[in-house]
Prior knowledge:
- The chain is mostly helical.
- The protein has helices at 3-28, 35-69, 80-103, 105-115, 122-125, 133-136, 141-145, 150-163, 177-181, 185-191, 209-213, 239-256, 260-268, 276-281, 301-324, 330-352, 359-366.
- It is 60% helix and 0% strand.
Amino acid sequence: MTGAQIIVLATPVFLVLIALELAVGWARGRNTYRLADTLTSIGLGVMSQVTGVFGRLLRIGLYVLVFEHVALFQLPVDSLAVWLGALLAYDFCYYWHHRAGHRVALFWAAHVVHHQSEDYNLGTALRQTSSGFVFGWLFYLPLALAGVPPVVFATVALIDLLYQFWVHTQQVGRLGWFDRWFVSPSNHRVHHAVNERYLDRNYGGILIVWDRLFGSYADEDDAEPIVYGTRAPLQRWCPLVANLDVYRGLAFDSWHAGRALDKLKVWLMPPGWRPADVAARFPRPAFEISQVQRHEAAVPLRVQALAAALFGLVLVATSGFLWVAHTLAAAQLAGAAATLVAALWGVGRLLEGRQPVPAQAEAVEAGEAPTSAGRASR
């Protein structure tokens, strides 16, 4: 069974748990869901799986190439110690991959998609990038060099990913000793915060121990409520803009930088860093947490219903696509993927209604100086 097929089988479980969290939130008077945000988050997850059909060819292909030709030795597949060691090693590599996603602008441009939601719920867990595969494979090559078999690598990667689903909730409080060792809802809520004391903390996938060891841990403080999202809010429901927003901003700054070195540094420095000449010509407003407002769009109920219905059809079609993707020819894969992405774009347009496009997103689409890219916050 392929990884894509496992995701298809897991999808009904995800949806049931989302419905359960929604019901619990309503019963407690603490609903954390909004239709547009939830459909956008899940839709970005769908889009990441569709594009991931192509990305896995690169990621796994390069892994197998290194494993077969460069590995120092090849570990046995039938050893429990190999599986447990591989899961621990993968989680360690994931920590550094995730940390780089917040500290290197090029990696942030991909990872930002996961943080754009201004809500925090199980739907947010499914909000994933469609471009992370381009460079993400670099962080896991040490496992191939160490001789971890490809089937073990692919399996522990899926385990690490699936584990992280349940920690994206506000309905589970502190868990005592568990919070000290494992990634939990409490310490992952911190990771999604834009508050200064929480910013860029708690990168772990399964174990929070890595953050404690490498100085990136922060505890959730009940005295300072968490504000979710990014410091440069997207303010759009379009999945294409969500994936391209920060890349466009970085390209803009790189193009307008006067010094050749600065053109490169734009991509490699921490998110939000800008060459002095570019910052002077195209200033961005400073982040003020007191000014944060969640993005809303006035859309008639019938249009919301139409968007939800179209999204349901896309979800069913995507499940079928992922189930048979490994049997399709390249042209069929490309055609089906393009159709599904176009349909997701249509859902986003319906959810945005007729309201004016926010200035920063308008600039991104027009190729002008966007205010939402980077972290000029982040």
